Amino acid sequence: MYAIVDIETTGGHASANGITEIAIYLFDGREITQHYQTLVNPGVPIPYYIESLTGITNSMVAGAPPFEAVAPLVYELLHDKIFVAHNVNFDYSFVKHHLAASGLDLQCKKLCTVRLGRKIFPGLPSYSLGNLCRHLEIPINGRHRAGGDAEATTKLFGLLLQHDKDKAIAGALKAGSKEQFLPPNLQPEVVKQLPEVPGVYYFHDVKGKVVYVGKAKDLKKRVNSHFTGHSASRQRQNFLRTVYNITYQQTGTDLMACILESVEIKRLWPAFNAAQKRVEFRYGFYLFEDQEGYLRIAIEKKRRFSHPVHSFNLLIDGHRLLRALIRQFELCPKLCFLQKGDGTCAGKTAATCHGACEKAEAPAVYNERVKAAIAFLQEQQPSVVILDKGRNSDEQSCILMEKGRFYGMGYVPAHLQTSDAELIRPHLTPYPENEIIIGLLRSYTGNGQQLSSSQK
């Protein structure tokens, strides 16, 4: 027995919106055996644009029963049936959420007439209820009203049953089938062909734009996890309606997947990614030559597309390190912007300044010490080559970090066993670094993982 359901609501997600009307047609595959329809007082105001779309006004529902009053009957009609709707995840999420608020746990198999329409009547320009019914010459008596849409969906479902030569409906109901959980516009073959390997996956909208990027140790398992459960949040419902396709890039290891995910989120800025989109306020040492020819070290916030000679997270760490360099390499505090004003240079008292700030020391002499300080900093940074398993037996994955900076990653022949960056670099794809990637690599190298070191 099928229960064909349609609801009208005050908004697009159940967690903050109410049901204004519900219609249920019980259908045995041949005829309608029972019909139930009622307006519902949603307990919240109906927005004007919803009133304009459905024709249901606040005054119409003022005397209608609240959902908790009709919940027992709704549950009795649905609980042992197959729940059918056009874009079933939307209707099911609302009904399940509001039944749960009344203490009733709905657990049904589901069928989506959008998905079934794509399978049984392929090649149509649109699978919206209005366009699909127009193509199949099904009249809708009351568009955007629960009763009219549910009745039309029942007739549509009857035609789907009649023309289901490839048993798409039975396949969707089969134990283990993921179809009843998938977004209405996503073909199940797209998910089925995903490999069980590490990688990065991309969710695309109807125009092919990437709306979400994720990483996985097992692409198939991780992607499927996005579609389980019945969250009633706005973000989830918008997300399910938006997804039309999935693509992926396989990686040799989970570490590579983590790095590539971070790169791609920064590059594509997908709408449904929340993590890793914050502004990074890391600091750096920037080296420049002033008008007098003296090299100067300045501490500044990292800017996009800028290349500091050294990076750090906290401003206090930068000041501490720069003061240490001033002492060790006898640099001028004024030329390093740690002393301002026209007073006597503190470096003279500390015997670290030889008069460069007063032009008593030639730029060429002073600059040699600045260059030595920068070289010392860079020598302290790790240069590592991380070799690990590849995507197949003929290759191995490779990640290169040079002097504390992420260079890139890629794949080298399985027989190549070297830590020489010059031999490895031609096999790699350079990528921009960011705070997340540097943190991943420093954590990885600091945990005693197997790697080859290349100290430069």
TrEMBL record:
Q: Which residues form the GIY-YIG domain?
A: 196-274
Source organism's superkingdom? Bacteria
The record's annotation in InterPro entries points to: DnaQ, GIY-YIG_endonuc, GIY-YIG_endonuc_sf, GIY-YIG_UvrC_Cho, Ribonucl_H, RNaseH-like_sf, RNaseH_sf
PANTHER family associated with the record: DNA POLYMERASE III SUBUNIT EPSILON
- This chain belongs to the protein called GIY-YIG nuclease family protein
Question: Which species?
Answer: Chitinophaga qingshengii
Its ancestry begins with:
Bacteria, Pseudomonadati, Bacteroidota, Chitinophagia, Chitinophagales
